[in-house]
Design a protein that fits this description.
- The complex is a heterodimer.
- By secondary structure, chain A is α/β, with parallel strands linked by helices.
- Chain A contains nine helices and nine strands.
- Chain A has two domains: about 110 residues, Rossmann fold, CATH 3.40.50.11860; about 60 residues, no CATH class.
- In chain A, helix 4 packs across helix 6.
- In chain A, about 40% of the residues are buried.
- Chain B has one domain: Alpha-Beta Barrel (TIM Barrel).
- Chain B contains twelve helices and eight strands.
- Chain B has an eight-stranded parallel beta barrel, surrounded by five helices.
- In chain B, helix 9 runs antiparallel to helix 10 and helix 10 packs across helix 11.
- The longest helix of chain B is centred in the C-terminal third of the chain and has 18 residues.
- The radius of gyration of chain B is 19 Å and the shape is globular.
- Classes of the chains: A alpha/beta, B alpha/beta.
- The interface between A and B is medium-sized, with 29 and 36 residues.
Chain lengths: ~220, ~325
């Protein structure tokens, strides 16, 4: 899921400077789990903005904030509330904010900072394990990603900053290469770690990424 | 066959080698003694030049750190050329933190044309430990890939697979941490560095000679030369700090006590004595092929350390 954190309220007010009427957009998926864009947070934001003298013309919590077609559909259903607003405040991730951008012509502002693609460890606790590099190498690293989980993202073993299995930049964090070593040792596959990994292709996906699922011609399940 | 133009290039750029290269020293079987120059924060390089002049005839070569500890400083490459111009022998440190593969390749071409013959390949410290905490870390490559990159340039090809008009040639160095904990992953990396073309190693600071001797038994199985890295201890406090904060460095209690027993203001003298003693031991017992002395800001005492260690590089 996409992990988000709400910006400081003062920063949000600064974004909305000169915008008296605001329409709020939440996200029923990731931002709801991150408590940054669910029904509850949207309601709370409406109250805080109202107490600051702003008018909240309405709100919607999209099923999934980054689904542009759904967003457009929902925005049509809230046309009057949106038309009467000076701006939209989007309580979703950066992708959700930009799906709102694609759906309206009004000014759009983010309420959240987007942090990373995160695993949910338990409710309210997230950890980054995949950096979406476009060239998965988990097959050779015991399913532990050094590109993401090593601070430097290096590919040929631990750096000199590792100590007792921890990372020098944050002793709370495990050294990915120590974890990889331990896992491959358990599997009896240390030769995978000993094999040289050449410089990574950072452009397997030409940025900005675009992907279209290839459909079989004629829609026939056979050949 | 095309005749090499490199001699003409070196002649045009007035490249002179006043000193033997690190490779020549090691090949001759001499005990290699290197020092280190840490470039300053800012363009006033007068003190650094004093240090270069002080050390250039006392050590075989000088490492030049590359934005050491992720702190922005005068460039290592510029300093390496300066050392060359002043009649010393530089050992250029290159890290992968601040430059991508294009920038590193270009720097290596430049270094080669200016007579730089030895390169120490490092991954580099992480950005958050330094003084530009908001900077984008590069790490397009790391140390093993950097070694391989140089080997590719030596084969006349860049990392894009394109032909160079002339190949380069460097003596390729790397580092290893004998006190790493756990040691096994570090040893795998050491082996990968050797396979990637590392010809000699400098170790992270070592203080425990018995432990170092054990490490060397493993390291001696590989066809590479190894210099023991020594960091000058200036006080018991510094030793304790390093034990607590510098990964892969372990100062035994015995040495800390020795530093603590020094008269007020004299602990650096004890530090000098300790290092001189260790250099002597490493040399006499043949524990390593040389030493790399890191005085970290106290370059002016290096001649004294060498004197106490009874080392005169002209008489080795």
């Amino acid at each position: 899921m996409i992990v988000t954190k709400q910006k400081a309220f003062e920063a949000i007010l600064k974004e909305l400077d000169g915008m008296e009427k605001v329409f709020l957009v939440g996200c029923g998926d990731c931002a709801t789990l991150c408590e940054t864009g669910g029904e509850e947070q949207v309601k709370e934001m409406a109250e805080r903005l109202t107490s600051e003298g702003k008018t909240v013309t309405g709100s919607v919590v999209l099923e999934v904030g980054c689904h542009e077609l759904d967003a457009k559909k929902e925005f049509r259903a809230h046309k009057e509330e949106i038309d009467s607003a000076d701006a939209l405040l989007v309580m979703s991730c950066g992708a959700g904010c930009q799906s709102a951008r694609a759906g309206v012509e009004k000014p759009v502002f983010p309420a959240n900072d987007t942090l990373f693609l995160g695993n949910v460890l338990r409710y309210g606790q997230f950890e980054e394990k995949c950096r979406l590099c476009g060239d998965c190498l988990l097959d050779i690293t015991g399913a532990i990603c050094p590109v993401t989980r090593c601070h430097k993202g290096i590919l040929n073993g631990p750096c000199g900053g590792t100590n007792e299995g921890k990372c020098e930049v944050d002793p709370e964090k495990d050294c990915a290469w120590t974890l990889i070593y331990q896992q491959l040792e358990r599997e009896g596959k240390l030769e995978k770690m000993k094999a040289y990994q050449p410089p990574k292709n950072w452009n397997t996906v030409l940025k900005p990424g675009r992907h279209v699922i290839e459909r079989k011609r004629g829609g026939d399940a056979g050949e | 066959m095309q005749v090499s133009n490199m001699d003409k290039v070196f002649e045009e750029l007035k490249v002179k080698h006043a000193k033997p290269s690190i490779k020549e020293i090691l090949d001759s079987g001499k005990f290699l003694v290197t020092g280190e120059i840490g470039p300053p924060k800012g363009p006033d390089i007068t003190e650094m030049i004093e240090h270069i002049d002080l050390l250039k005839d006392k050590v075989h070569a000088m490492n030049i750190t590359d934005n050491q500890s992720s702190v922005m400083r005068y460039p290592s490459l510029a300093t390496a050329i300066l050392i060359k111009e002043r009649g010393g022998e530089p050992n250029l440190q290159i890290t992968c933190r601040d430059r991508n593969r294009l920038a590193i390749e270009a720097d290596l071409l430049f270094a080669y044309t200016r007579g730089i013959r030895s390169v120490l390949c490092l991954t580099g410290d992480s950005i958050p430990v330094g003084d530009h905490k908001d900077a984008k870390p590069v790490f397009d490559l790391e140390s093993v890939q950097l070694l391989n990159l140089i080997r590719s340039l030596e084969d006349g090809k860049d990392l894009g697979g394109n032909e160079l008009n002339e190949p380069v040639k460097f003596f390729k160095g790397a580092i290893v941490t004998p006190e790493a904990n756990p040691l096994e992953p570090q040893l795998i990396k050491f082996e990968k560095k050797v396979e990637a073309g590392a010809e000699w190693f400098q170790t992270q600071a070592i203080y425990d000679m018995d432990h170092f001797a054990k490490f060397m038994k493993i390291a001696r199985q590989y066809p590479v030369k190894i210099q023991a890295g020594l960091v000058l201890l200036v006080s018991a406090g510094m030793a304790k700090y390093m034990n607590k904060n510098v990964p892969g460095v372990f100062v035994p209690d015995k040495l800390i006590d020795e530093l603590a027993s020094a008269e007020k203001g004299k602990s650096i003298d004890v530090g000098i004595k300790i290092m001189a003693r260790q250099i002597k031991q490493i040399r006499e017992e043949g524990l390593a092929d040389g030493v790399h002395i890191m005085a970290i800001g106290k370059e002016d005492v290096v001649p004294r350390i060498l004197e106490e260690a009874e080392i005169d590089i002209n008489e080795l």
